[in-house]
Design brief:
By secondary structure, this protein is mainly alpha-helical. 77% of the residues lie in helices and 0% in strands.
């Protein structure tokens, strides 16, 4: 339990610093945009390269990975179906909403939970891999198309935007380094580690600034926010648990791991992505805030039921 509380405490403190400095007018809306761009184009790509390069990709092809893929795909399809028949959102907001509903905070919250609750930081890797190699690059490529100058969908345009996105490139580079067992030289690893270390703090600071300076939640979006919160904190861990229990027949520790990872709140990366493309920013911000607050209850509930 200490790991769960520590993870939430760290996030809250850094977000609070951003909120306070924005309130004191030390940070402005321009600061928020700068931090978001710094994270999107520099810090997060470097972090992804260094993180993926350290992992044994072959060891990640496990039941945890299968359960992660199934839960993310199922929730994404539920969200897309609700947009098609209920919410009628534009395509960019639909894609951002998919991220908000299915992209879990596996980095700065999942890692301490996996380490202290599940006794293995490697438990977070399958969901990170699923998001970095599947959900994120596909969503970003579609966002590029939806917000760019392309007038029609073509395979060439999709692939081109897929490989030009900095986060996708960083993920692919990290995977290649891991597959070919190429270690980053110590002389280079140190400065890269410093740059990658900025990723999480800059995201959290920008999020705190948005909470203070951004528009207030729109009551008209309340039903959408409630649905996204349900998908993220209830449907996604429920799918992971059901698939793990009745299809994969996982042992208790493995079932707890896949359910807990699926029950993490929406990642701050979603806010960075929404800010970069300028679509669905308030929706992403509100979903991150609500799911992070309520996930304290759901995470403790999952541990209490399955541990």
């Amino acid at each position: 339990m200490q790991g769960v509380l520590s993870g939430f405490f760290v996030i809250g403190v850094v977000v609070g610093i951003g909120f306070l400095l924005a309130h004191l007018r030390v940070f402005t809306a321009q600061t928020q945009n700068m931090l978001a761009r710094l994270s999107f184009y520099v810090a997060m790509p470097v972090l992804f390269v260094t993180m993926m390069a350290k992992e044994d990709i072959s060891a990640l092809l496990s039941t945890d990975l299968v359960a992660s893929v199934v839960s993310i795909v199922t929730v994404s399809l539920l969200w897309l179906a609700s947009v098609r028949w209920v919410w009628k959102l534009p395509l960019p907001e639909t894609i951002t909403g998919t991220f908000a509903s299915a992209y879990v905070n596996a980095g700065n919250l999942g890692l301490p939970i996996a380490t202290y609750v599940l006794d293995s930081p490697a438990r977070v890797v399958p969901v990170i891999l699923t998001q970095l190699l599947f959900l994120q690059p596909v969503g970003l490529a579609l966002l590029d198309l939806a917000t760019g100058t392309a007038t029609r969908f073509t395979v060439g345009a999709f692939v081109g935007r897929f490989v030009r996105n900095p986060l996708t490139i960083a993920t692919l580079v990290g995977v290649l380094l891991s597959v070919f067992s190429i270690r980053i030289p110590t002389l280079l690893a140190t400065p890269l580690g410093m740059v990658g270390g900025m990723a999480v703090p800059t995201v959290l600071l920008a999020f705190g600034i948005s909470l203070r300076l951004g528009p207030r939640p729109d009551r008209r979006t309340g039903p959408v926010l409630a649905w996204q919160t349900f998908l993220k904190l209830v449907a996604m861990p429920a799918v992971a648990w059901a698939f793990g229990a009745f299809v994969l027949h996982l042992a208790a520790p493995d079932l707890l791991a896949v359910t807990l990872m699926a029950g993490l709140p929406t990642a701050q990366n979603v806010f960075v992505i929404a800010s970069q493309y300028g679509r669905g920013v308030v929706m992403a911000r509100d979903t991150i805030f609500i799911t992070t607050v309520l996930s304290v209850l759901t995470i403790f509930g999952i541990v209490a039921l399955l541990a």
